[in-house]
Design a protein that fits this description.
Blueprint: E1 16-19, H1 22-33, E2 36-43, E3 46-54, E4 57-63, E5 88-91, H2 95-104, E6 108-115, E7 121-126, E8 132-136
Parallel strand pairs: 1-4, 5-8
Antiparallel strand pairs: 2-3, 3-4, 6-7, 7-8
Length: 147
Amino acid sequence: MDTREQTSNGSTIIPCLRYRDALAAIDWLQQAFGFHAHAVHADGDTVHHAQLVFGTGMVMLGSSGNSGEWARHAVHPDQVGGRQTQSACVIVADADAHYARATAAGARIVIDIADQPYGGRGYACADPEGYLWWFGSYDPWHAGAAP
């Protein structure tokens, strides 16, 4: 099986998040992190599916709820003491400029910006609903990392 397969216009692994106020999250993620709405399918305040892009990467999100197959397997960060089992890592050209944008929009910094021992510069923050994000300039695709 060839695990190096990529689509022609983006990533093949896309994180998916569920927000209590998905419409507000979409607005905030665009303002604070620089995402752009690619598609938003909503009825009133309920977002059934949204796609936000950043460069060639994407996150998908929707409104959280207590019904449906997916809801049986997922919890919101505040239901588990704010802890996470996964997070998104976003490669940015200028980590300091991104840090300034995110902090100006009210992102809660959980790991301050710093040069990293493996290369690049980055920081970690939480969005308004408690999801963790890492933003940094280290790009493993162009850092001589082994396949």
